[in-house]
């Protein structure tokens, strides 16, 4: 087992200070942003942008990640709670350790047999997004002749309930909408496109795990919780079936970050110092980048899955615009971060396509930050507008905010559909980057 130096955290912080200062400051101001993909959906006030004169919205194409949820693995809750309780029986916990034990039991009991389930906050997130969409684009949803909505969800409970919450709210506002819902493997290449992940995922995850193991400076953290360091090391390694203690600190960090997805569970932010919190964010940001992101090492393969979703967006929009599917008001898709991260990378959406190799991974906070890219309920919305001549514009948004893509336009945040479509077609080709 590797030896861990007490001053390791300070060294790690010094290495990254100049490279990720902005994200460091954001996390210091709001610890929840260290949650990465566990960050709960944040709603910010923004003004309505009017389209150019004569254009009215007529169709919406959407992809949304499921809302706030429980961790997908039950052992993330049970292992640390049971381990801390055993240490307490052995008289090996500090006062802070006993407080952590108390909170872990509350959290674990709440999560019992709920691994991966949507939380009540997650349901509210989707109802809120649906309500704001409905009220922002009444022309799309109030047309009695164009009132059909097609919904596709991955066959996971959290995605299906997200779809149900979203469409329930739409129906409450516009009762005459006709909604067709699907949740099956038939559409999995759209709702959870991961067919290319198998070619590299295990290798990328193993590299990220090794990096995490080598850069987790956890002795101070462990010593705040246990009064016998040697005992703690032996217990942690036994519990996590590892020759390293890194997994324990990462587990507690995961729990500390997922808490924001709930209403009444006790927080764990105070178990970490500010440098430790940033350290853990960076390590998990690396893991997410290598497995889902546009890295130089693995991103080209991963982006192939994003292209599957992009092709579906183009094809369904073409059918609506051409009149082949003239009654379609919206296409709503519900799935996972594993789809939306590569989609945004393929489109080179601003802040979502940063590329570095593993050899320069310390630069990652400069170019790619998971908390900014893929929160819970993160969504992409394409709002289509048309004038009486039949000219079509499209507005592209991530999480209800305009985000730039490299398509020329003289009326941002609106793009000519022809220009936008040509760009998307070029990006969706297998050989494109």
Structural overview:
By secondary structure, the chain is of the alpha/beta class. The protein has one domain (8-70, 116-223, 273-428): Phosphoglycerate mutase-like (Rossmann fold, 3-Layer(aba) Sandwich), CATH 3.40.50.1240. The chain has 18 helices and eight strands. Strands 1, 2, 3, 4, 5, 6, 7 and 8 form an eight-stranded mixed beta sheet that branches. Strand 5 (379-386) and strand 6 (392-398) form a beta hairpin. Helix 3 (75-89) runs antiparallel to helix 11 (229-239). The longest helix is centred in the last third of the chain and has 24 residues, at 299-322.
Keywords, separated by commas or semicolons:
49% helix; elongated; 18 helices; 433 residues; Rossmann fold; disordered N terminus; alpha/beta
Strand content: 5-15%
Q: At CATH's second level, what is the architecture?
A: 3-Layer(aba) Sandwich
Elements, N to C (H/E):
HHEHHHHEHEHHHHHHHEHHHEEEEH
Structural class, by secondary structure, is alpha/beta
What is the mean predicted local confidence, pLDDT? 92
Number of separate domains: 1
CATH class: Alpha Beta
Shape: elongated
* Biggest sheet descriptor: 8 strands, mixed
CATH homologous group name: Phosphoglycerate mutase-like
Distance between the termini: 41 Å
Number of helices: 18
List low-confidence stretches.
1-20
| CA gyration radius, whole angstroms | 23 Å
Helix content: 40-55%
Number of strands: 8
CATH topology: Rossmann fold
């Amino acid at each position: 087992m590797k030896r861990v130096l007490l001053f390791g955290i300070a060294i790690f912080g010094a290495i990254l200070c100049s490279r990720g200062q902005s994200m460091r400051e954001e996390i210091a101001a709001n610890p929840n942003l260290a949650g990465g993909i566990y960050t709960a959906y944040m709603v910010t006030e923004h003004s309505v942008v009017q389209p150019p004169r004569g254009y009215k919205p007529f169709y919406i194409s959407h992809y949304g990640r499921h809302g706030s949820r429980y961790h997908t693995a039950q052992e993330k809750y049970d292992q640390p709670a049971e381990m801390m309780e055993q240490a307490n029986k052995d008289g090996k916990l500090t006062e802070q350790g006993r407080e952590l034990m108390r909170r872990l039991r509350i959290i674990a009991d709440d999560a019992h047999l709920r691994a991966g389930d949507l939380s009540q906050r997650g349901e509210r997130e989707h109802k809120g997004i649906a309500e704001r969409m409905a009220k922002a684009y009444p022309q799309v949803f109030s047309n009695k002749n164009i009132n059909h909505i097609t919904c596709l969800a991955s066959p996971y409970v959290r995605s299906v309930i997200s779809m149900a919450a979203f469409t329930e709210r739409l129906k409450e506002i516009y009762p005459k909408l006709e909604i067709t819902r699907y949740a099956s493997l038939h559409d999995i290449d759209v709702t959870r496109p991961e067919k290319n992940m198998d070619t590299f995922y295990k290798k990328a995850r193993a590299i990220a795990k090794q990096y995490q193991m080598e850069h987790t400076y956890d002795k101070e953290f462990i010593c705040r919780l246990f009064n016998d360091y040697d005992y703690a090391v032996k217990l942690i390694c036994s519990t996590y079936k590892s020759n390293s203690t890194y997994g324990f600190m990462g587990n507690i960090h995961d729990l500390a970050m997922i808490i924001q997805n709930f209403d009444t569970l006790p927080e764990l932010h105070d178990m970490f110092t500010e440098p430790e919190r940033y350290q853990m964010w960076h390590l998990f940001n690396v893991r997410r980048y290598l497995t889902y992101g546009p890295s130089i090492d693995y991103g080209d393969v991963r982006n192939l899955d994003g292209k599957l979703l992009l092709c579906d967006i183009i094809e369904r929009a073409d059918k609506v615009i051409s009149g082949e599917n003239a009654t379609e008001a919206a296409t709503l898709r519900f799935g996972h971060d594993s789809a939306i991260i590569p989609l945004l990378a393929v489109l080179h959406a601003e802040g979502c396509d940063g590329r570095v190799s593993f050899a320069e991974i310390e630069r990652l906070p400069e170019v790619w930050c998971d908390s900014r890219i893929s929160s819970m309920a993160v969504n992409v919305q394409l709002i289509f507008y048309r004038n009486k001549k039949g000219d079509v514009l499209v507005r592209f948004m991530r999480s209800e905010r305009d985000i730039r893509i490299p398509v020329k336009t003289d009326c941002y945040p609106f793009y000519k559909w022809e220009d936008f479509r040509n760009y998307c077609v070029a990006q969706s080709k297998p050989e494109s980057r």
